[in-house]
Design a protein that fits this description.
The complex is a heterodimer of chains A (333) and B (463). In chain A, helix 7 packs across helix 9 (257-268). Helices cover 38% and strands 10% of the residues of chain A. Chain A is α/β, with parallel strands linked by helices and 333 residues long. Chain A has 12 helices and 9 strands. The longest helix of chain A has 29 residues, at 7-35. With 463 residues, chain B is mostly helical. Chain B contains 18 helices and no strands. Classes of the chains: A alpha/beta (333), B mainly alpha (463). At the A-B interface, helix 1, helix 2 and helix 5 of A face helix 1, helix 8 and helix 18 of B.
Chain lengths: 333, 463
């Protein structure tokens, strides 16, 4: 009868071999992969052994700026026909929305516009927002993460289509398995072109709060918006703000509202108030401190079921006028 | 740091074991407490460490004093020591004080947000109290040697989440520290089983409850309510049992036989039996230091009721500071009294019904345990029993389908490992290569799961 089963030796030996493999892999491929923000699983394992698996912000700014530089030949001007003149904001705050001009905006305006649009952006007066009825959603779709799943189940809005993948982030959106309208699953970019929508509501970001600098996140997000517009040429894209978390959750976990706010600020840059809008959902659910109200969230992050109806109605109250009248775009093409 | 952290498994544990094994007998006795204090410091920081050392020293000194005095003074010292021990514990339970680091490894604490207090205080306070009381009773002699005492007090496997070990259980081995190759192998196997239970089963079931939390209890369907209660019951068991096995395993690797904390509790035939098989070290602690001193079952019915009530009130308070824990303790007390006076005969004669009764009741008591707000408990029960109140307009009656689709393997595995088959098979085949391969796979699968989630700290969001 065997005396020992030697488990511990096997484990130790495997651990050593694995560390060697991981270190080599990281050395040889690590730099290349990090440039393309596609950190391979073994390197993640290696990181887990050596780093605290929480916010890795301290490690990333160097890599992040490198990544931004690599992509500098792609600018936000390709997203819409003109430069973002104002931030897209909810009309209730129309009076003060012009006040904030970001330094990055002026920087972008110096870069040559690449589209055939006139050099001087057409003076767009503040877009008019109206309230629509439920039929507005008949040619709309929602794309995103677990919040979009919540909308699909609880917002009692069967007219719209929903594409969601719980836990998805901007990094993994191409490879993630999405639940599709009508059941079934698939990769988003394989199926999104099959039906044409006039309105696309996007919500991502809650699953990557600890990851990258806001600019890097917004850049990836911008790529996604472009890809959506490529397969949905007639659609107006609505970037929904990342939702706040409750005070408790923000204080005690990686889901921090400071990061949410920074990332939302970066997302606002993507809007052009014509084909791409930024919609701030937070005023609907925030408490007086700017965090999510704790009575409407069971886990500090997600919304309880009844909130999704309010969310849907909020979207209905903030519809660009021309989308309701069906009269083309605000700017003469 | 917790026993399931990768940093612990791949840095702390190997380094500790190598030093421990290589050290001579005398050095081993020092390695134990030093490693324990380092371990605790990683988890609790310097303030927590100082507090803990203070508590340990207090009890050490008090025990020596008790052994040197007699009569009234002896009793006085005991009472004072216990007052300080439990006073401090109650203070932390009920005062919203400066928050100290919440342990991350003991997963179910995220469900109990009120447990903001020095790391492991509920466990080590009871441990020290048992030591002092045992010295008073003459069961053991006070340990004059601070090194061996620290070896007991700061033995890191049991430090943060138990088991609650009595000094007598470690006494002999403390004096002559040593371990064998067989101990190390056996201990590690036990460790891996516990590790797998916690990571592969418990952590996989945790998101079910989080999902239900996020929807809001009023808006879930009845099937989902029951699945949620079942998931929570399984998750709690595998998390706590897993962790206890990990502690036992490391204890065995060091040559100590730490007491088991669980003995297939879901096989019980009465709730009284359940609580002799669940968190055994806590149950025996209450039995030896509260129930029997108060009279127990040998002094008439009234005494019995009093003793049981004291035990269950204290058990409720020990588990948490919100009122639902007291309510939970009272629920269990009710059933235990019912069994004592009415049901036991029936349960003994009808084992099938008894099994069903235990599982049916216990799963629902865990619901009371899990939800801090009393009104929310009510909401949850109206969903468990939908005839109590009509479902609100937001309930999506197919919500359980997606949950079942992704979680049924873990529910099935959970139920299977609650049954005795695996344990019997394992005991028989412990040394066979099949077990080695199986545990090897379990170990690396668990490591992989932690690494995957660790790189994405949003464990509760990926559902």
């Amino acid at each position: 009868m065997k005396k020992h089963n030697n488990l511990i030796w096997f484990v130790a030996a495997t651990a050593m071999v694995l560390s060697l493999v991981v270190v080599c892999n990281d050395q040889v491929y690590g730099a290349y992969r990090r440039q393309h923000m596609d950190v391979p699983a073994p390197a993640l394992v290696f990181q887990a052994f050596t780093e605290t698996p929480s916010l890795q912000e301290e490690n990333l700014p160097v890599k992040a700026s490198a990544a931004v530089k690599l992509a500098s030949n792609e600018t936000y001007s390709e997203i819409g026909p003109g430069m973002p003149e104002n931030e897209a904001k909810i009309p209730e705050q129309a009076a003060d929305s012009t006040a904030e001009t970001q330094p990055e905006q002026s920087e972008q305006q110096e870069q040559p516009a690449q589209s055939a649009q006139p050099e001087q952006p057409v003076q767009v007066s503040q877009p008019v927002f109206v309230t629509a009825d439920m039929s507005y959603f008949d040619d709309a779709c929602f794309i995103g993460d677990s919040f979009t799943q919540g909308l699909s189940i609880y917002s009692k809005n069967p007219g719209a289509d929903y594409y969601y993948s719980v836990g998805v982030s901007t990094k993994g959106i191409s490879k993630a398995s999405f639940t599709l309208p009508g059941g079934g699953t698939g990769k988003l970019w394989d199926v999104l072109g099959q039906k044409q929508y006039k309105k696309v509501y996007l919500l991502l970001g809650i699953n990557e709060l600890g990851g990258d600098a806001p600019e890097v996140f917004a850049q990836r997000y911008g790529e996604i918006v472009k890809q959506i517009q490529a397969v949905q040429p007639e659609a107006t894209v609505f970037i929904q703000s990342i939702l706040h978390t409750t005070q408790n959750k923000s204080a005690s976990s990686a889901f921090k509202n400071e990061i949410v706010n920074r990332n939302n600020e970066a997302l606002k840059m993507l809007a052009d108030n014509n084909k791409v809008f930024y919609i701030d959902i937070n005023p609907l659910f925030d408490d007086e401190t700017g965090a999510l109200r704790s009575d409407i969230s069971g886990d500090g992050v997600h919304l309880k079921a009844p909130c999704y109806i309010e969310w849907r109605d909020y979207l209905l109250r903030n519809v660009p006028a021309w989308l309701v009248s069906g009269a083309g775009t605000a700017i003469a093409a | 740091m917790a026993l399931s952290d990768l940093k612990f498994i791949f840095w702390f544990l190997p380094v500790f074991m190598i030093i421990y094994v290589l050290a001579g007998a005398k050095l081993k006795r020092i390695v134990l407490p030093v490693s324990g204090l380092c371990f605790y410091c990683f988890g609790a920081g310097i303030p927590g460490l100082l507090f803990y050392i203070g508590s340990a020293l207090l009890n050490y000194v008090s025990a020596i004093l008790i052994s040197k005095t007699a009569g009234g003074i002896k009793k006085l010292i005991l009472i004072l020591t216990l007052l300080v021990n439990f006073g401090v514990l109650l203070f932390f339970k009920y005062a919203n004080l400066v928050s100290v680091i919440i342990p991350e490894g003991f997963g179910f604490r995220s469900v109990l947000p009120e447990l903001v207090m020095p790391l492991g205080i509920s466990f080590y306070t009871f441990s020290f109290a048992s030591y002092v009381i045992d010295v008073y009773r003459g069961t053991i002699a006070a340990d004059r040697d601070i090194i061996t005492y620290s070896g007991y007090a700061a033995f890191f496997p049991k430090l943060i989440s138990g088991p609650i070990v009595r000094y007598g259980e470690m006494q002999e081995k403390l004096k002559s520290c040593g371990t064998t190759r067989e101990n190390i192998e056996d201990g590690f196997c036990t460790f891996v089983i516990g590790f797998g239970m916690k990571v592969l089963i418990a952590d996989s079931l945790a998101p079910v409850w989080e999902h239900i939390l996020s929807i809001g209890f009023e808006s879930i369907s009845t099937p989902l309510a029951w699945i949620g209660a079942l998931s929570f019951s399984l998750r709690l068991y595998f998390d706590f049992n897993g962790y206890s096995l990990m502690a036992m395993g490391i204890g065995k690797m060091c040559g100590f036989d730490l007491p088991a904390n669980f003995d297939l509790p879901y096989l019980s035939r009465s709730i009284s039996e359940f609580w002799r098989r669940w968190h055994i070290t806590l149950g025996t602690w209450f039995r030896d230091y509260v129930y029997i001193p108060l009279g127990g079952s040998k002094n008439g019915k009234l005494r019995l009721i009093l003793s049981l009530s004291a035990v269950w009130l204290c058990t409720g308070i020990w588990h948490g500071s919100t009122f639902n824990y007291i309510l939970w303790g009272l629920c269990l007390l009710t059933f235990i009294l019912l069994e004592r006076f009415l049901l036991n005969g029936f349960l003994e004669k009808h084992p099938a019904a008894a099994h069903f009764y235990v599982c049916f009741v216990i799963v629902q008591t865990w619901v009371v345990f899990a939800i801090p707000d009393i009104r929310d408990i009510g909401n949850y029960f109206t969903r468990l029993y939908p005839f109590l109140r009509k479902a609100n307009e937001f309930v999506y009656f197919q919500d359980y389908v997606e949950v079942l689709k992704s979680k049924w393997p873990f529910l099935a595995a959970g139920i299977f490992f609650c049954l005795p088959f695996f344990r019997k098979w394992y005991e028989k085949n412990r040394k066979s290569p099949v077990v080695t391969v199986m545990l090897f796979v379990v170990f690396w699968a668990s490591v992989y799961m932690i690494a995957k989630q660790g790189s994405n700290p949003f464990m509760y969001c990926s559902f």
